[in-house]
Design a protein that fits this description.
Layout: H1 28-37, H2 48-55, H3 59-71, E1 75-78, E2 81-84, H4 86-116, E3 119-126, E4 129-136, E5 151-153, H5 158-164, H6 169-176, H7 191-203, E6 208-211, E7 219-227, E8 230-239, H8 245-263, H9 283-290
Antiparallel strand pairs: 1-2, 3-4, 3-8, 4-5, 6-7, 7-8
Length: 298
């Protein structure tokens, strides 16, 4: 049941003297949201008077909220008033990037799921977790406790390790160093061990493997989707423990190569482990596997 607003106005008594229920006024969170909503585009600039007109707030309240949001970098002062600050713009950029990634990946994810019959995930790194943007299931889907909009720990999943492998060591330490909780007996919880694993991911041309590290009965193989400045997400195949990961790994590599190319059509550099690659599977090797007569790996 929804909780009542945090702030209430004083109640009035009718002529009979019986008290009325308090009339709710907007809570502080609602008023802060109204101020942020006044900036309806990343380039919007508003004066204090414009914020008051768009929100209906009292001048003192609007000014107090703008000052607090400015202090926290949600809003910034400009020569002609106020604008969205770096904190708010970072959220907008992440959302736009995620939408572009989902659009580019959609047909590739479908093909990958049809070809393998396995569970396909698309995820993006946010903090110490991977947020699941898409999940396409086969008959094994009900056994994989993930959902679109949910999140999984980056250090304990192939989805996360595929992205972390291409980040600077210092950034990895900052992102997951203090949040390496144990999910199963196989979860890596030591930062030095994680760095060793990420080095092996790079040596395997970007392929990350997970064998019961997040969920005891789920194995995964994943590879990162690369943008102009580094990894922007990852694609994984999830399967039962006894399924050979090596057989489907090239299909995942090819899927992320195709999505990366869709996002970066002008990128022509040949990837290497030293330069944070897209992938280095040869086209001939991938074609040989993709043209297998069975068309399925289960």
């Amino acid at each position: 049941m929804e909780e009542p607003p945090l702030t209430l106005t004083a109640s009035r008594r009718p002529e009979s003297g019986a008290p009325l229920a308090p009339t709710p006024s907007p809570s502080m969170i609602e008023r802060m949201t109204a101020v942020l909503d006044a900036f309806d585009a990343p380039t919007t600039r508003c004066s204090l008077d414009e914020v008051i007109a768009r929100t209906g707030l009292a001048r003192s309240t609007a000014h107090r909220i703008l000052t607090a949001l400015t202090h926290l970098s949600w809003i910034e002062r400009t020569a002609d008033g106020y604008a969205l600050g770096p904190r708010a713009l970072a959220f907008a950029d992440w959302e736009n990037t995620s939408m572009d990634l989902r659009h580019a990946a959609a047909p590739v994810l479908h093909e990958l799921q049809v070809a393998t019959g396995m569970v396909v995930h698309l995820g993006v790194l946010k903090g110490a977790h991977v947020h699941v943007l898409d999940k396409l299931g086969g008959r094994f889907a009900a056994s994989v406790p993930t959902r679109v909009g949910g999140r999984v720990p980056a250090h304990g999943t192939a989805l996360g390790k595929a992205i972390l492998a291409w980040l600077p060591a210092e950034q990895i330490d900052e992102v997951v160093g203090g949040q390496m909780g144990r999910m199963t007996s196989r979860t890596i919880i030591d930062l030095n061990v994680l760095h060793d694993e990420l080095r092996r991911v790079r040596e395997r041309r970007g392929l990350a493997f997970e064998q019961g590290e997040c969920f005891p009965t789920v194995n995964c193989v994943s590879s990162a989707v690369m943008g102009e400045a580094g990894p922007v997400g990852s694609i994984s195949l999830a399967m039962p423990p006894r399924t050979p990961l090596e057989k489907v790994a090239p299909l995942v590599a090819d899927a992320t190569r195709r999505v990366s190319a869709e996002l970066n059509p002008r990128r022509t550099t040949v990837p290497t482990a030293e330069s944070h690659p897209l992938h280095t599977w040869s086209r001939e090797a991938l074609d040989t596997i993709l043209l297998t007569s069975s068309g399925r790996w289960m």
